[in-house]
């Protein structure tokens, strides 16, 4: 069907061609095709981007032939419909149009790929920033609980486990800040479970820190050195 449609355009041009002319002006025809093909493809893309870039190019090829038909000068009407010559020129039009389509499709797909990479990079940076904010908030909360637990361990005789629990309320604002960071990124149900897991892991760390602090505090002071002994 495609060849028939294009051939019909060539036949339609034939009545306007005078008999007795020497030959087809191939160079002028090719120059016209080279000039008009980009314009015709761009116009088609403007009307229907997807159809022009990914559909059949028959309409665009016919339009190029229509625009460049006035430079064809056959010696006779028979020359105008010579099968070998016609096939060659239609192949030239097809190649020119296909090249323009391919170039624009490549540009469009490259732009899409670059845009997708940019979105992925932005998303990755966003996720990295979010993870850092959570890590920073968790560090502040952990430090607060450990600091208060060590202080309590020096003035209380309660077990390390009890002291670790007692230190948490002193850091309520830091704990809330951590919760908010997790909630903003993952929602409240996830934030609640995550914070429970964090508290569980932190509790064991705080207990060890309390034991260490008490052990260090219970060490006897180093013996004093008499004056002049050294």
Description of the molecule:
- With 230 residues, the chain is mainly α.
- It has two domains: 2-81, no CATH class; 120-218.
- Helices cover 79% and strands 0% of the residues.
- The protein has nine helices and no strands.
- It has helices at residues 2-13, 26-47, 49-54, 58-68, 77-80, 83-155, 160-167, 172-186, 188-218.
- Helix 7 (160-167) packs across helix 9 (188-218).
- It starts with a helix and ends in a 12-residue tail after the last helix.
- The model is unreliable at 1-24 and 73-84 (pLDDT under 50).
Secondary-structure topology with pairs:
Blueprint: H1 2-13, H2 26-47, H3 49-54, H4 58-68, H5 77-80, H6 83-155, H7 160-167, H8 172-186, H9 188-218
Helix pairs in contact: 1-4, 2-4, 2-6, 4-6, 6-7, 6-8, 6-9, 7-9, 8-9
Which features characterize this protein?
230 residues; 2 domains; 79% helix; rod-shaped
Tally the helices. 9
Detail the poorly predicted runs: 1-24, 73-84
Secondary-structure element pattern, one letter each: HHHHHHHHH
The portion of residues assigned to helices is over 70%
Beta fraction of the residues? under 5%
Structural class: mainly alpha
Per DSSP E runs of 2 or more residues, the count of β-strands stands at 0
Radius of gyration: 41 Å
What overall form do the CA principal axes indicate?
rod-shaped
Residue-averaged pLDDT: 80
End-to-end separation in angstroms reads: 111 Å
Largest sheet composition:
none
> How many structurally independent domains?
2
